[in-house]
């Protein structure tokens, strides 16, 4: 665990030191759980969004995009259930005055038990070597069986309490498990209360409740209320999807873990409209399609897993998370939800407008069902950064390097052009010529501000897949040294070949195919 938290600290420090992420309003000591993306951060973030948009909208003839406003009519949030049900259970510690999510406190306790199980399994694996049968061990080892029973009991109690909104039971679980404030160790808790996560503001020209506006807590509703507009203007036939990338806001009770849980964040959501009754098929389809999207980036399948929801959100009839192995454990990266006709049906009822689709094959009208895929841009960013950051020794006694092994298509800078001698005019001219040519195609950098070793380290740290060095030999034969970030291999290539070689590695095409 100590190692994992060091890893996380390094990652946060790296993000700041190399211009990926800064705390918002840092000069005023920051604003809790709000972050700004720096020059390399915004490039990586844009590349992630580009990959998602292309795989959804460009590759699917039956998915189209929109960009809806953040502010929506307040009735939207009544219909969607967010005014009444978008709550988290909150508990305060009376001694430390710290505030927690009751369900998270219980989940952390479950993580501890899971950790104990894993430890026993690891010990046994070492003891038995190749002959180790994990499944058998899980069902026969007395200690593991007991831990598993404990885990399942808590999980079931938590799921039932959450589904029923049973706040006294949540408090009871915390008491039964003797959960203490993680910071102060105190068990002096208040009762559990519901806390609505929506931020509200006031419309300028209308006083009181009437003018109360919310900052959207999810982008999905902008899609639902535009369903008919989009369907009619694009003449899409069901099944079809609407995709959107945009900001969402949640007044999270506990906002920790850097950009994992923010109060202002960005979502990439796609609502897929289907015939009622076909939700199982499409739910399965999107589960697999989304996992494939993640794996195409080269992320190891041991770092990704499906996790079925124990308690369903107010709108869902089936829900699964794609979890990623963050430095603080497996946590939700993306959600896939079967939302039935909950949203369209409620908007139809509250607005009094017919929101239906006439199915030409069935010759009937209905309120379509929906399967949603919803992923946080920022969580994807964190997943990619934590997956990519490696500290390693450079062979040949050159010392250690921190390198970001990002997929080249996501890397903020694709190639750095480095003149070997910055006082030699002919070399500088040639290097700048290469830079000016490549910048028409890719995000590239020209840098002559240090020794070549230092420049390489800097490019490694921001994940640049290629470095080009220009030297005296280049002047004679128009060849340059091309260095590969991951293999550290250096090859001599003709300048005319550069664009093709870089394109082959950084083109998003290879991810989409
Ligand atoms: P959690 O259980 O972690 O609070 P959630 O189940 O409420 O997440 P959804 O409502 O399904 O999340 O939102 C879809 C996606 O939006 C999540 O998978 C996550 O990637 C992202 N997301 C949600 N809340 C936040 C947040 N506070 N900060 C950053 N990303 C978030």
Key descriptive features of the protein:
513 residues, binds adenosine-5'-triphosphate, 41% helix
What is the topological layout?
Blueprint: H1 2-17, E1 21-23, E2 35-37, H2 39-58, E3 63-65, H3 75-79, H4 82-85, E4 87-92, E5 99-101, H5 102-128, H6 134-140, H7 142-164, H8 167-176, E6 193-196, E7 200-202, E8 212-214, H9 220-224, H10 227-234, E9 240-249, E10 264-274, H11 279-295, E11 304-308, E12 318-326, E13 329-340, H12 342-351, E14 357-359, E15 364-366, E16 369-376, H13 377-388, E17 389-394, E18 399-404, E19 415-419, H14 425-438, E20 444-446, H15 452-462, E21 466-470, H16 472-477, E22 479-484, E23 490-494, H17 498-506, H18 509-512
Helix pairs in contact: 2-13, 5-7, 5-8, 7-8
The structure holds adenosine-5'-triphosphate (ATP).
The helix count comes to 18
CATH level-two architecture of the domain at 394-512: 3-Layer(aba) Sandwich
CATH homology superfamily of the domain at 394-512: Anticodon-binding domain
Major sheet details: 7 strands, mixed
Helix content: 40-55%
Low-confidence stretches are none
CATH class of the domain at 394-512: Alpha Beta
Strand line-up across the major sheet: 3-9-10-16-13-12-11
Shape: globular
* Head-to-tail CA distance between termini: 38 Å
Question: Whole-number average pLDDT?
Answer: 94
Structural class: alpha+beta
Strand content: 15-25%
* Rg calculated over all Cα atoms: 26 Å
Q: Per CATH, what is the topology of the domain at 394-512? A: Rossmann fold
Number of strands: 23
Name the bound molecules.
adenosine-5'-triphosphate
């Amino acid at each position: 665990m100590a190692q994992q938290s060091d890893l996380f600290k390094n990652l946060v420090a790296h993000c700041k030191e190399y211009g990926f992420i800064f705390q918002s309003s840092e000069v005023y000591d920051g604003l809790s759980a709000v972050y700004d993306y720096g020059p390399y951060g915004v490039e990586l973030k844009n590349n992630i969004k580009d990959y998602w948009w292309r795989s959804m909208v460009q590759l699917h003839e039956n998915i189209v995009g929109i960009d809806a406003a953040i502010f929506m009519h307040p009735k939207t949030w009544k219909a969607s259930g967010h005014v009444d049900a978008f709550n988290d259970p909150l508990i305060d510690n009376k001694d430390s005055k710290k505030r927690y999510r009751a369900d998270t406190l219980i989940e952390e306790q479950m993580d501890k038990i899971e950790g104990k199980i894993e430890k026993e399994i690891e010990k046994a694996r070492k003891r038995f070597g190749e002959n180790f049968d994990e499944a058998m061990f899980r069902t026969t080892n007395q200690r593991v069986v007991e831990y598993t029973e404990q885990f399942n009991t808590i999980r079931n109690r938590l799921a039932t309490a959450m589904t029923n909104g049973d706040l006294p039971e949540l408090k009871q679980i915390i008491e039964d498990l003797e959960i203490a404030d993680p910071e102060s160790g105190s068990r002096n808790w208040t009762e559990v209360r519901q806390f609505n996560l929506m931020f509200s503001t006031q419309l300028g020209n209308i006083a009181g409740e009437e003018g109360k506006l919310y900052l959207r807590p999810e982008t999905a509703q902008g899609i639902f209320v535009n369903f008919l507009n989009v369907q009619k203007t694009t003449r899409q036939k069901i099944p079809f999807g609407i995709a959107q990338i945009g900001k969402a806001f949640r007044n999270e009770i506990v906002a920790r873990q850097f950009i994992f849980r923010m109060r202002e964040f960005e979502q990439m959501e796609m609502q897929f409209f289907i015939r009622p009754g076909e939700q199982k098929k499409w739910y399965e389809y999107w589960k697999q399609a989304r996992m494939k999207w993640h794996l195409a980036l080269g992320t190891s399948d041991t770092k990704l897993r499906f996790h079925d929801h124990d308690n369903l959100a107010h709108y869902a009839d089936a829900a699964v998370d794609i979890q990623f192995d963050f430095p603080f454990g497996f946590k939700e990266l993306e959600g896939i939800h079967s939302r039935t006709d909950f949203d369209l049906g409620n908007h139809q009822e509250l607005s009094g407008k017919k929101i239906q689709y006439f199915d030409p094959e069935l010759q009937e009208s209905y309120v379509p069902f929906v399967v949603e895929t919803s992923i946080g841009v920022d969580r994807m960013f964190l997943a990619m950064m934590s997956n990519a950051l490696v500290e390693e020794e450079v062979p040949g006694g050159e010392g250690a390097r921190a390198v970001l092994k990002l997929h080249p298509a996501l890397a903020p800078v694709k190639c750095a052009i480095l003149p070997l001698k910055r006082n030699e005019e002919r070399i500088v001219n040639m290097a700048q010529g290469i830079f000016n040519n490549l910048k028409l195609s890719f995000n590239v950098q020209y840098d002559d501000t240090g020794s070549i070793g230092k420049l390489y380290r800097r490019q490694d740290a921001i994940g640049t897949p290629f470095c080009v060095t220009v030297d005296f030999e280049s002047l004679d034969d128009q060849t340059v040294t091309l260095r590969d970030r991951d293999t550290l291999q250096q090859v001599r290539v003709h300048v005319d070949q550069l664009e093709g070689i870089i394109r082959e590695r950084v083109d998003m095409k290879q991810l989409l195919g």
